[in-house]
Specification:
- With 193 residues, the protein is α+β, with helices and mostly antiparallel strands.
- Helices cover 23% and strands 35% of the residues.
- It has four helices and nine strands, in the order E-H-E-E-H-E-E-H-E-E-H-E-E.
- The protein has helices at 15-25, 54-66, 98-107, 128-138, and strands at residues 2-10, 30-37, 43-51, 70-75, 81-92, 111-115, 119-126, 143-148, 152-155.
- The strands form two sheets. Strands 5, 6, 7, 8 and 9 form a five-stranded antiparallel sheet that branches.
- A hairpin with a 3-residue loop joins strand 6 and strand 7.
- The longest helix has 13 residues, at 54-66.
- The protein is elongated, with a radius of gyration of 21 Å.
């Protein structure tokens, strides 16, 4: 099963190697690993995509949480979340098929970010599946180069804990966040729109 795990880690040398070693020591191949700064300059967010059985990956997640430089770990399995991947694709074009390539890129909401005599570069953001589908559509034209960032992910809005119904109150009652619950639905009056 595919797991998307987010880890908030201290922004210091060696943390990436520590996390990668934890996965490789248990025989897991990391499909995607992205590290980037957060709103706090002392912390970085790692987004790790790995395939494996639920029990073993749960143990890896728990061991990851025990590492000293790791502040927080979340597995997005069973949660409502947003994920994005970014790709830059250089495609061979000729004057006769340039418009076809541009049309395919626009169908996938891609942007043409560079144009040359014999090629174009498409920037594309979305889910892994969307990018894979676009790459397959562009492959017959001749992909010269492909670079992808890997998956980044964030939980959607407020997610109450399983089995509890938590609604916003006019007095600002405390809300509970959980990665296992679906996103809460609010009316416009509740959101004061």
């Amino acid at each position: 099963m595919r797991h998307v795990i987010s880890a908030l880690v201290m922004n210091e040398p060696g943390v990436l190697a520590l996390v990668a070693n934890l996965f490789s020591a248990r025989g897991f191949n990391i499909d995607s690993l992205v590290v980037g700064r957060t709103e706090n300059p002392d912390l970085s967010r790692m987004t790790i995509v790995a395939n494996g059985d639920d029990n073993t990956l749960d143990q890896v997640r728990k061991q990851l949480a025990k590492l000293v430089p790791v502040q927080d770990v979340r597995d997005f399995g069973g949660a409502s979340y947003i994920e994005r991947d970014l790709a830059l694709i250089t495609i061979s074009v000729e004057p006769g098929n340039r418009s076809e390539v541009i049309e395919i890129a626009s169908l996938f909401r891609g942007k043409i970010v560079d144009v040359a005599q014999d090629s174009v570069i498409v920037e594309l953001a979305g889910t892994e599946e969307k990018i894979d589908a676009c790459v397959e559509m562009l492959r017959p034209y001749g992909i010269k180069e492909l670079a992808r960032t890997g998956v980044i992910a964030m939980a959607r809005g407020m997610q109450p804990e399983k089995g509890t119904a938590v609604a916003p109150t006019a007095t600002g009652g405390k809300r509970t966040r959980s990665m296992d619950a679906p996103a809460a639905q609010f009316t416009a009056a509740e959101l004061r729109i």
